[in-house]
Amino acid sequence: MSRPVPRTVAVAAALALLTGLATPAHADTTSQRQRDFAAAADEFGVPQNVLLGVSYLESRWDFNGGTPSTSAGYGPMHLTDVRAAGVATSHHDEGTEDPRGDDARPALHPQAGPVAPPSGLQTVDEAAQLAGTDAATLRTDAKQNIRGGAALLAKYHRDLGAQDWYGAVARYSGSAGTAAAQSFADEVFDTLRTGVARTTDDGQQVSLSPAADLPVPAHAGNPADVECPRTVACESVPAPYQELPGNDYGNHDLADRPDSQKIDHIVIHDTEGYWDNVLKMAQDPTYVSWHYTIRSADGLIAQHVPAKDVAWHAGNWYVNAKSIGIEHEGFAAKGTWYTEAMYRSSAKLVGYLSRKYGIPLDRAHIIGHDNVPGTTPATIPGMHWDPGPYWDWSHYFDLLGAPLGGFGLPGSSLVTIDPDFAKNQPAFTGCDGPGTACVPRGSEAVILHSEPSESAPLLVDIGLHPKGTASTMAVDDVGSRVATGQRYAVAGVSGDWTAIWYLGQKGWFHNPRAARVAKPAIGWVVTPKPGIASVPVFGRAYPEPAAYPAAVPVQAITPLPYTLLAGQKYSSGGTVGSEYYYATTFDVADHVVVKGKLKYVQIQFGHRIAFVKADDVRILPAF
């Protein structure tokens, strides 16, 4: 986790960093990366703090095991090489999930076709030439990677002939547009002003001292037709609301949120494709839709659908009608990592939206696509699981100003999952093909067992595995996995193991005192009312039949294939009203928001959220 450097750091140290002359005081193995930055800065004539700031906005100084980022970048300096990173899959084309998720309309299974990587993501070749080495070395050797990045920055500075380094930093972003390049440079210079220090994913201690009074040019701002904070670069790339042959239409629904329906969730996705291709999909009227896409290299945000309208992104119509969907350029499993530039832009956007629409900043309301429930038993196996186990929820919520974990008293009956991201490295398989071992790397996921033992089988998710077989360590199998920030009721403790209630059963995870992966929490839990042996669990909070007007087909309230038994407890995400947005025609005059008297409680039931009828449960405080 990053921490600010105290403002009292000596002025001399800050000046030394500005001139690129400072070196760490202790030559130990954990400060080697700091020395590598100092040496590269000196060799190529780049201010050391500028080099550190650019690298932090790209990778937070991590090496990421030599694996590529979501935009084909390698190493601390994010040198890009699409030849090595390979071709991506395409968005929403895998699995059986219907992105719209509405039984009243035929399921959508669009195909976008093959996705090729953009030709512009190839800085490693020029860096190798400037640094006197080869591309493979720059991808796999952190020290040489830093040299390559420094060489590029120095060349950009020479090419511009500028007095300061702002323009060179902006160019390093790789952005074709001025606004995005400036936004990236602004983030770098903000980091230079505040300073930062952290331990990298491979145990290196790196720090950047604060430097005040750094110049930042004035900018024109974002277009008037985008809903974005002023501190990030945004553009409008509208998704088409268009009538199609056969009484069909696409690729979203017009609405009047939040006046017509409250927006309760923000859903975090990854694109499973590269920026240029994904934006073409968003503009295809026969494809599906989401509200925003965020670019990996520089954090540029494109808005496609106004927040008032309903996009087709989450595979659950109730969630779609009550959420905003944000896609992040990247991949859930292909050994990739998300850049700091994208994390920061995303956090600023989510913070802005949460304030505008009153969405709580917690993991019950800021959810991944992998946390969206199936609508019926038949849809559960096909639900998507992005942004995947390598999305750093803890760091993301730090950027949101809403840090996770650590707010309860010892012995609390409720815990927040919060492992050390870098050190927590589950042995997943399938990142580069079925059954193949994934490259060990930091993860937000904690694995559950049926007994307090590493050798015990994983839990059974009867929805994902209808034949009753145990879950697996396949990277796409979320049936026995909890995620950072999620809250669960404690079901037992045995030595260094903690059990939680999960899909109607006890799930055990290793939680030793010296390396806790779950922290005590404060909140509310739900449990069946006295006399009720089993409570049905639902994937959507639909109204009772009597609430529907004559012209609107009644939607079935279908329970999921799980049981919430007497004595079990689950974390509450709050009480919600029952709603159904009837929108199956191009003409919005036929659209109706149905609101019922039935109340539901959102719960953290397994890896995904779920809903139970409020009349079936008690809501109790957990301390």
Task: Return the average pLDDT rounded to an integer.
Answer: 91
Strands in their spatial order, largest beta sheet: 5-11-10-13-9-14
Radius of gyration: 25 Å
Stretches with pLDDT under 50, minimum 5 residues: 1-26
Question: What keywords describe this structure?
Answer:
623 residues, alpha+beta, Lysozyme, 6-stranded mixed beta sheet, 5-stranded antiparallel beta sheet, 13 helices, globular
SSE blueprint:
Blueprint: H1 11-19, H2 32-44, H3 48-59, E1 73-74, E2 79-80, H4 82-85, H5 124-131, H6 135-140, H7 142-160, H8 166-172, H9 178-194, E3 196-199, E4 205-208, E5 234-236, E6 242-244, E7 248-250, E8 252-253, E9 265-270, H10 275-282, E10 292-294, E11 301-303, E12 310-311, H11 317-321, E13 323-328, H12 340-357, E14 366-368, H13 393-399, E15 414-417, E16 445-447, E17 481-483, E18 487-494, E19 497-502, E20 505-510, E21 518-520, E22 523-528, E23 534-535, E24 564-565, E25 570-582, E26 592-604, E27 609-613, E28 617-622
Parallel strand pairs: 5-11, 9-13, 9-14, 10-13
Antiparallel strand pairs: 1-2, 3-4, 6-7, 8-12, 10-11, 15-18, 15-21, 16-17, 18-19, 19-20, 22-25, 22-28, 23-24, 25-26, 26-27
